[in-house]
Amino acid sequence: MRKLACVLVGVLTLVALAGASSAKLSKQDQILHALNRLTYGPRPGDVEAVEQLGLKKWIDLQLHPDRIPENPVLAAKLAPLESLRISQADAARNYPNPQLLRAIAAGREKMPEDPLTRAAVERMLRRFKTKKGAPEEEILDPAVPLEALVTPAQIKTLRTGTLEQRREVLSSVPEDKWDELAIAMPAGLRGQSMPAASEELRRKLLLMNAPQAMIAFDLSEGKLYRAIYSNRQLQEQLVDFWYNHFNVFLEKGADRMMVPTYERESIRPFVLGKFRDLLSATAKSPAMLFYLDNWESVAPEAANARNKGKKSTRGLNENYGRELLELHTLGVDGGYTQKDVTEVARCFTGWTIRQPREGGDFFFNDRIHDKGEKVVLGVKIPAGGGKQDAEKVLDILANHPSTAKFISKKLAQRFVSDNPPPKLIDKMAKTFRSKHGDIAEVLKTMFNADEFYAQTIYRAKVKTPLEMIVSAVRATGADVDFAFPLANQIAQLGQPLYRKLEPTGYSNTSNEWLNSAGLLARMNFGLALAQNKIVGAKVEPMKWDGTPAEIGRRLVLVDLSPQTLEAIEQAVDKAAIPPPAPVAGKKAAPKPPPVSVAGLVLGSPEFQRR
Question: Residues 475, 481, 483, 488: is their CA dihedral positive or negative?
C-alpha cells in the first residue's frame, strides 16, 4: 500500500492547491461550504439535514449550542474518562506516579499526609509484595503472579497473537481479577494489550504503566469523541480555536494535572460569550499562571524584603505580560512597547497559585504585589492598588481597538481564509467594539457577510491534521470505540494534541501543513482507515460500491477533478491490485477495488480542502 500511496501523492502534490471555480456559489455549495467551515466535516446526511432546516437557521443554532440536543452516543463515549471531570487537586491525588510508590515502599518517602492520596497509595501498595534492599525498579513484585491468572499459552498469545486472539484471552479473565492482571503484566505487555482490552481494563493497564499519563489519554480521547460525535460542532471548533489562542503546553510540570480543568472551566464555558470573560478566566487559570511563570512573579522590593535584604532569585517575570499583549489581545503590531510589557507584568505580580505541585487554585498574594504607580498604554494605574491593577489591565486590553482587529483577523483566518479580506475584518472588528466583545455576535457578522461565501475562498483552506483525520472518520461514518490511536495518527502528522510547546498554539493557516511528506502520511492514513487497519475505528466496507467518481462524490460531496481520477486509476494499476471478480454470466467492465479507491479519495487534494 505504501507504493500505491507514493504513486498517487506524486501525481496529486502538484494539484493540491488548485484554484477555486470562478462560478458564484450555488445554494448547495453554500451549505457544503458552511458545513466544511463550521464543523469537523460533514457526515452522511448532513447536507440534506441543513437543506431541510435552512442554512441560516442551522447557523443560528450552532451559535446557540444550548438549543441543540446533544448526541447521546457522545455521553456514553465520554463517561469512562474520569479525569476530565475531577478537579486538578483530585487529579494530583488520584494519579500518583510509580516513582512515589516505589519510594514509599523502600522507606525513602513518607506516606502522603492528605487522607485521600494516602488511601489511593495504600490501596495500590496492598496489591504488591515489597522486596527490601532490592534495586528501585525491582522493589515491588505483584502479589499475584501473571502465571496464576493466564496460562503460558495465553501469555504467548498476548505477545504474538492477532488482535482478535488477544481480545479472546483478555475476555477470558474474570472481571474481579483485572486489577491483579494489570499489576502482574510487565509494562511492555500492558501497552501491547491495550488495543485488545475493554475500556475498563484498558484504563487499568494504563494506570499501572503511567498513572499521570491517564490525564493526557483522557484529554485526547475526549477531544476526538467530541469532534467526531457532537451535534454542537461549532462549539467544538471554537474550543479548539480558543485553546490554541490561549495555548498551554500539557507537558510542563504541574500543567499535566491542570489542563483538563483549564479547558473545562476557563475555555469551554466562554467560547461564545464575552471576550473579557474569557480573557479573565484564562488569566486566573493556574494552568496559564504556571505555563507562563506568572505564579513566580514577585515585585523586586517584596522579594528582597522577604529575603531580609539578600538578593532574591525570584523577581518580576514578564512572560505572561508579553504574551498577553502580543498573542492574547493586541497582536504584535497592536501599538504596545517594551515599557508596556514591564508595566503589565508589574500589575500582575501577586497573581499566583496555592501549592501548584498539588493542583492548587488561584489566589492573589498582596504581599508580593508591586504597589507602585503604573502606566499601561497611556492609562495611569494609581499607586497603592492590589488585585484590581491587573483587572484594570484586562479592561483596557479587552476594549482596545487593536484587540478587536486582532481577534477578528484570527477568527477570520480560522473560518474564512489564510488572508481574509480587510473589509470583512473591519466589519467584524466594528461588531466586536459595538457589542463589547460578544464573540457570538462577531461570528454572526462573519457568517452573514458576503465575503464568507465568496467563490475565492470556497474549498481554499487546507485541513490541519486534526481536521483531516476527524473529517475522514465523519465522512466514512466510522464507529470509534478507542480514540487514542487516532490521536497518535494526528501526532504523526505533526499536531500532537495539547502539546504545542510555544504559546502561539497551532497555526490556523495552510503553510504549516503543506508538504509532500505530510500528504503521503495523510494518504497512508486514508488507506488504513478505509481498510479497517486503524485500531479502534470500524468502517463498513460495503458502502464503497461504485466507480471512483461515485465513491469520490460520496466522500467529498463534490466531483473529483480529472487529474485526481486519473491519478487514482494509475495508482491502482501500478499497485497491481486485481479488480473484483465479475459476477457469473455478466460482462461488466472490471472496476478497481472500492476499498482502495475510498482510501485514495481520503488522501486526495479534494479531501484535504475545507
Answer: negative
Residue 39 backbone dihedrals phi, psi, to 5 degrees = -125, 180
Please work out, in degrees rounded to the nearest 5, the angle formed at the alpha carbon of residue 266 by the alpha carbons of 264 and 269.
Answer: 70
Residue 393 Cα distances to 150, 297, 344, 377, 379, angstroms: 63, 16, 7, 9, 9
Question: How far apart (Å, rounded) are the C-alpha atoms in residues 183 and 193?
Answer: 13
CB 58 within 8 Å of CB 34: yes
* For residues 447-472, average pLDDT: 96
Give the rounded distance of the alpha carbon of 253 from its chain centre: 19
Distance between CA atoms of 134 and 130, rounded to whole angstroms? 9
Provide φ and ψ at 274, rounded to 5°: -85, 135
- Alpha-carbon separation of residue 356 from 162, 264, 381 (angstroms): 44, 18, 29
Give the count of alpha carbons within 13 A of 19, CB side only: 4
Pair 373, 343: CB distance under 8 Å: no
Q: What is the pTM of this model?
A: 0.90
pLDDT digits (tens, 9 = 90+) for 11-39: 545 444 444 444 468 999 999 999 999 99
Cell of 205: 493497564
Mean pLDDT, range 211-221, rounded to an integer? 92
Buried residues in 383-421 as b, exposed as e (16+ CB within 10 A): eebebebbebbbebbbebebbbbbbbbbbbbbbbbbebb
Longest C-alpha distance within the chain, in Å?
A: 98
Q: Are 547 and 592 in contact (CB under 8 A)?
A: no
Q: What angle do CA 108, 112, 116 make, to 5 degrees?
A: 150
Between CA 353 and CA 277 the distance in angstroms is 20
- Which helix (H) or strand (E) segment is 362 a member of? strand 362-364
Q: What is the DSSP string of 200-242?
A: HHHHHHHHHH-TTHHHHHHHHHHHHHHHHH-S-HHHHHHHHHH
Q: Which three cell numbers stand for residue 555?
A: 466522500
Mean pLDDT, to the nearest integer, of 360-372? 95
Residue pair 260/84 in contact (Cβ under 8 Å)? The answer is: yes
Nearest CA-CA partner of 428 in 460, 454, 451: 451
Cell for 505?
498554539
> CA-CA distance, 95 to 119, in Å (whole number)?
12
Q: Please count the residues of the chain.
A: 610
pLDDT of the residue at 5? 53
Would you tell me how many other CB atoms lie within 10 Å of the CB of residue 450? 10
Percent of the chain with pLDDT over 70: 88
Q: Measured between alpha carbons, how far is 6 from 500 in angstroms, rounded to an integer?
A: 29
pLDDT, tens digit, for every residue of 43-58?
999 999 999 999 999 9
Residue 418 has pLDDT above 50, yes or no: yes
